[in-house]
Amino acid sequence: MLNFNSPIQNEKKYNEIKITEVEPTIKINLRSNKREFSTKIGKILSILPPTEANTSSGNENYSLLWLSPDEWLVYSKNKNQNFKDQIELEKKLFNEISKINQGAVTNVSDHWVLFNLKGNKIYDLLTKSCPFDFNEFKKKKGSVSQTIVNHIDVIIHNNENNDLNLFVRRSFSEDLWLWINDSASFL
Amino acid sequence: MSNELRINKNNFIDQTVRISFKFNGKKLFGFKGDTLASALLANDIHLIGRSFKYHRPRGIMTCGSEEPNAIVQIGSDPASTEPNVRATEIELYEGLEAFSQNCWPSVNFDVGGINNLLSPILPAGFYYKTFMWPASFWEKYEFFIRYSAGLGKSPTKADDDLYDHQYAHCDVLVIGGGISGVISAKLAAEKGLDTILIDDKNFLGGSTIYQDEESFKINNANSNQWLAREIENLKSYKNLVIKSRTSLAAFHGYNYLLAREALTDHLSVHERKNKIRQRLWKIRAQKVIIASGSIERPLVFNNNDRPGIILSSSVKKYIDYFGVKTGKNISLFTNNDSAYETAVSLNKSGVNVNVVIDIRENSDSDIVKKAQKLGIKILWGHTIVETNGYKRIKSFEAMKLSSDGENVVGNKIKFNSDCIGISGGWTPMVHLYTQSGGKLQFKSNDNIFIPDETKTPSEQISVGSCNGDFELDDVVNNTIYNVKKFISLDKSSYDKINVTCSKESSKKNIWLLPSDKPLYKTKPFLDFQNDSTAKDVKLALREGFKSIEHVKRYTTTGMGTDQGKLSNMHALGIIADTTGTNMGELGTTTFRPPYTPLTFGTIVGRNVGKFFDHTRKTAIHNWHVDNKAEFENVGQWKRPWYFPKNGETMHEAVQRESKAARESAGILDASTLGKIDIQGSDASEFLNRVYTNAWSKLAIGKCRYGLMLNEDGMVYDDGVTTRLAENHYIMTTTTGGAANVLSKLEDYLQTEWPELDVYLTTVTDQYSTISICGPNSKNIIKKIIPDLNLSDENFPHMSFKDSKIDGVNCRIMRISFTGEHSYEINIQSNYANDVWKACMDAGKEFNITPYGTETMHLLRAEKGFIITGQDTDGTLTPSDLQMDWIISKKKYDFIGKRSLYRSDTIREDRKQLVGLLTDDPKEVLEEGAQLVEDINKKPVEMLGHVTSSYYSPNLNKSIALAIVKSGKKMKGKKLIVPMEEKNINVTITDTVFYDKENKRLNA
User: What is the CATH classification number for the domain harbouring B771?
Assistant: First the structure.
């Protein structure tokens, strides 16, 4: 079996902040504007895709993030899921949705890299380069934002109080990791 | 430090912490909390610098950001030295080193001072008039003008300090921490709104915080005591953030504001290490309350610029706040009551107030009465006509004003004084309001411009003296009333507030005070930094300049680092008086950001050094680094450019790499290509509309090259798209075009073709692409994926297979950008590094050679394959590229189709892609070089230019692609490439140079 080489493989701690790369994590992009899509997803993942903008739904295994009126990102909460699980889930979703023209299922597990940010100062850190207004976001568990951090596109998911998941494109991940660590060191 | 000039009575300066600093090399002492200006004054130093034009001695004139004279160079380190820093704004820190500017060899003896003697022949416009002729002399003049221009010295090395940025969003932003700002912030916080209060000083309270005077009371307490309690109370509000040492720099539209927070400028050098020096706040506020206050105006009279002539309110702040006497024998010159507050403060601190010269005939306000009661001498209806003392005021002469105020009468009265506090009234600070797009109205009673609340562009109000309220009761009561209304607050803790204060009972204003000498023999300065006088303004008017903007530029009034904060109103007043115009009709000059200077470091933030630009890296990047690749920036991507071995030059490396690729095997990291996953029942129809060629009949498992056009018919992007399943494709785009293509296609789906059942998902980073080309590519793939049938029958050119490498799914495409038998392995990026290594191991016996973008470009140029963006420039149709074969004649429509049949796009003399061969096969053309037919015909007609050019080791000659006017018809024609040192003869050829029959694809 080939080695899994995620780009960062690191965890850093600073003053009231901890940053961790959480990989491997299964991530699958879902797109559909069909009525049956929600039911299908509900059956497969046991969660319904949220319809309210910038929100998420989830259970103990997965989080499902709203990205646009016809697009969602599902990611696994269980880090122990392996490559096989990823392929199985993708296959199941693909066969139940894409194959019968109910939408599009695309594996993006390696497209995005997941960083977890924890601590009292995570919003002080992000707002150093993120123009998004986090005032409401941080009050509401499960909020989702597609914004930029240091000019780089990211998806941010509010796990709970002062604990969030940030998705960044793999190719930008090292660049963003360096910036996050640099900025965190000055907090 | 002179103990005689420092009193020990206030709470604002920590006189237990002594701080040493240097001014012009001399070691001096001050206290924690001092500004450089207050410390210098405490050391009895008034002469700080020289003026810009006449090099006249100048001293500290104010205590704030409006300071025009006391601007200094801080530090001598070539990396951190900073010019034009206001001594009034910089907090004293241990080790501070400051130098006078605009003087040589010293501020005490400045050779440039000769300009002062020559001043009669250096009026406004001198430079414009003098250096016009003879025209040929301009370059000589320019050398000296440039040498003498500018103030201070720029740093010559990179700034080592750290800066950063921070975004903030709030319900209410209050700008200014004076009494009106503090009241506003408290009201907003009481309402429960997320509030930010910013102030440029390290201590809130503005001028009220040191107004310890019984004539000014709030709820029966002296105003300063009441305010101190209010400031303390603010700390209890969790929804209120107070940012001190934060200066508002710019107020843009829709309540977007920029502010600079000085974080370490007040710390000693060793305390600053590894800390952010300044931070740029980018603030979005629902509502903005401007409480920026007002600044005192000087008075314009003969020789009003001598060191020791200070604004009256600044004299008061230096004594009440910093505990510093600005002189031992101080006089005051005023047209309003403010100077009497200073007189009372000075008296209370034991400083002798020599005399108050007041241009008014009388005033019976409480504060004036109090001054009289204290025995302070007042000369009513008088003006100063002359001042004496070159480097420090020593004395002045006063005379009685005529009843119309235009002349002086009677005898001169001489007073000895080492400081004159002057007060010409107050100017509301409306800069921020106007920056946001707000319009002003003129209030003739006070000769001020204030915000016109009917012409306010966003959710904002101005309160306090920046709104024209100058008396304490008006400031407090109007602020409470207006802010409550603004934030819809019904009841507040201020509803029963009781304010009593001295009220000004008489007003008189004369913009240019008369002297006993004719105007041309006097120097009544308006703009102290640029040495612009009232005479200059009058001269400009005589010479036909009427607009305030023109007068400003002709006389340079208001163009110094203080941006005319002290001079603009007087310039307007003098223009109005001279031309008989109403000041309100004249308007003001434009107030542009920043309100106070920003360092470049603050603007740039952390985007320097390794954070200057963003880099995208492929999953195989570290292997490339380990194997000594030289990199090329392609968009944000770092792509291997070439892999030099044993000290090879790029040329040598590329020759080796390209030979290896053609003779055995080459390997390329092609992961940067854009990849879009396309799914949906209308995916084929979608591709038909997007590309120029037909897609409906593309079999599952096959690949096809496509050209994408803009609506204007010009080539936009290209790439290979593969049909993975009935309704599932994967499209590749150019590296640089990936994001734009996705966004354009998504835009079409959402707006033009909503009926199509198609979904797009970018997978550029999901898959890494490893391209292996050359005669041995098949052998290498066979070693890695033994189970895959690689026969041409099972796996022909332009097809794909799903496969597995070591248990990991992958897609193998048999496509070629080199003309060689090639395979592209697409694998999930987190496994790509191992697959690349496996390919290298498998290819070892075949001398597999990694190559970069330069070799890739050469190999494809040999085959005549275009690179969008290099061989195209947004002005070429497929036909121009000799690719008519890719335009489907049968399709109903595709993006850009109609444009292909416009008269202009079917012209035969358009520029078209051709091949070029040089007569000398070793001569490699420069990309971008022009092509001409007749070098002797003037003007030379340029027929086109070289777009790609290389030396091909496989052909042993130089090859090039070019776009040439009517190129298609010119095959075989000789053209000339004129270069700087020689003309190169070339022949137009076919675009394909190598393997025209495509035999190698199946080799």
Answer: 3.30.1360.120
Tokens of B448: 């001020």
Q: What is the DSSP string of B236-279?
A: T-TTEEEE-SEEEEEEEGGGEEEEEEESSTTS-GGGSTTSEEEE
CB-based contact, A24 to chain B, within 8 Å = yes
**Contacting residues of A for B829, CB less than 8 Å apart:** 110-111, 170
Of chain B residues 729-788, which have a CB less than 8 A from chain A? 757, 759-767
Contact flag B619-A7 (C-beta cutoff 8 Å):
yes
Measured between beta carbons, which residues in chain B are less than 8 angstroms from residue A99?
725
Test mutation, A171, A179, A183, A187, chain B, max B CBs within 10 A:
A171
Specify if B132 maps to a domain.
yes
B637 lies within 8 A of chain A by CB: yes
Residues 969-998 of B with CB under 8 A from A: none
| Closest by Cα among A133, A74, A21, A139 to B256 | A133
Mutation pick from B602, B639, B743, B828 vs chain A, by most beta carbons of A within 10 Å, is B828
Q: Which amino acid is at B26?
A: K
**B288 and B306 in one domain?**
no
Cβ separation of B829 and A111 shorter than 8 Å? yes
Per the structure, the complete domain to which residue B680 belongs is given by 669-847
User: Strand pairing partners for B358?
Assistant: B334, B380
Q: 3-state SS of chain B: helix, strand, coil percent to 5?
A: 25, 30, 45
Q: Is residue B373 part of a domain?
A: yes
Note whether residue B381 is domain-resident.
yes
Beta-ladder partners of B172: B195, B287
3-state class (DSSP) for residue B863: coil
Report strand pairing: B808-814 vs B822-828: antiparallel
Three-class SS of residue B975? strand
Instruction: Tell which of B532, B564, B596 closes a domain.
Output: B596
Of all residues in chain B, the one with the smallest CA distance to A173 is B616
B706 membership: H or E segment, kind and range: strand B703-709
Find, among B287, B304, B258, the residue nearest to B397 by Cα. B304
Using an 8 Å CB-CB cutoff, list chain A residues near B167.
127-132
* Same domain? B261 vs B320: no
pTM: 0.92
Q: Give the three-class secondary structure for B232.
A: helix
Task: Give the gap in angstroms from C-alpha A50 to the nearest C-alpha of chain B.
Answer: 19
Question: Under an 8 A CB cutoff, do B830 and A24 touch?
Answer: yes
Structure token pair of residue B838: 């496996």
Q: Specify whether B819 is located in the same domain as B933.
A: no
- CA pair distance A7, A10, nearest whole angstrom: 9
Query: How many Å apart are CA B808 and CA B517, to the nearest integer?
Result: 97
* Number of domain units in chain B: 7
Interface contact A106-B679, CB threshold 8 A: yes
Closest-CA distance, A112 to chain B, in angstroms, reads 7
Domain A14-184 has CATH 3.30.1360.120: yes
Last residue of a domain, one of B847, B875, B899: B847
Strand partners, B759: B679
Residues B401 and B446 in one domain: no
pLDDT along chain B (1003 residues), means of 10: 74 91 96 96 95 91 95 94 95 96 87 82 81 84 81 91 96 98 98 97 95 93 96 96 96 96 94 94 98 97 97 97 95 97 95 96 94 96 96 97 94 97 96 94 93 94 97 97 97 95 91 95 93 93 89 88 89 92 86 87 94 96 98 96 96 96 97 98 97 95 97 97 97 96 97 97 98 97 96 96 94 96 97 97 97 97 95 96 94 95 95 97 96 92 96 96 96 96 96 94 80
Q: In chain A, where are the structural domains located?
A: 14-184
Look up the ipTM and state it.
0.97
In a domain, B96, yes or no: yes
